[in-house]
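#onboarding

Welcome to the new folks! Below is a worked example of what a typical request in this channel looks like: someone posts a single protein sequence, and someone else replies with the predicted structure as tokens. Don't worry about understanding the tokens yet, we'll cover that in week two.

Example request:
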Amino acid sequence: MKILFALLICAPAWAVDTVDHIDIHRYLGTWNEIASIPQSFQKNCYKNTQAEYDLLEDGFIKVINSCETKEGDIDSAEGRARKNPKQKKDSKLQVTFVKFFKSWIWAFSGNYWVLDLDDNYQWSVVGDPTLKYLWILSRKPKMKRKTLLDIRNFIEGLGYDSCKVLLSRQGQSAPQKRQALCDL
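Example response:
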């Protein structure tokens, strides 16, 4: 009985899975952050957060994350992504921003799991099995409310707390306070 109870408690983390396949060529390009669980490495980001993905000749994906600071400066970081060699699905990627000389250090990589993806590659939900990371991305800086509500229901079904997911500031007239996804 104790084992069954433990399995039920852990079930939400096990329920996190990804889409079956991503066409990496369609996934490349610029994505706007619509909402996220705020992370310490994004503490300087105030608005207009974006991620750009470009396939390199060596097979890695060049990642450029950028945002505008409160002072109006652009803050950016470059990294690399790849399919996680320990996973079967190509939708379970690893990303690292740690480079030593000319080598990317995968020991410091994080999970970049594509949890949900629009059929036309217009929006994406990215997270990880620990439920500590989540990004809702869109090709456009704004997303339809209905789509966002559908995504909220989807991530709650995975075990994410939508009150920890904050809407991102996009555009010139960004609000001072970020609204929680659960308040929509």
